[in-house]
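Human: I would love a firmer grasp of how sequence relates to backbone shape in proteins. Take your time, and here it is.
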Amino acid sequence: MSIFENFKDSADKGTDASKQFVSKTFEHTKLKAFQLTALTLSVIVKLFIIGSLAILGFIFLAFSSAIAIGEYLENIAFGYLIVGLVFLTISILIYLFRKYFDRKVITSLSKIFFD
């Protein structure tokens, strides 16, 4: 009977170790999910605050630039046209280099997610 008791003790120890492993893995997964959620929410809030202020600044900059260029050219409409074309050119360039931006975002997110 000693052999059977040794098998039983070994099986109990293995069961306890596997339960502990599953419990620790679950706790780690919960902590990782919390970390990613907190980081994502933090980035979204910062992006919203900084982005809204930057957009407001760009709006004022665009209007003042258009007015200044229009006064220089003695035609306000040309000033607005030039500023609009500059924004359109920047938009087209960003569209053409969108894969570069995608790679940068994916690389930075993979560092956060897999570390």
About this structure: DSSP finds three helices and no strands in the chain. Residues 2-114 form one domain.
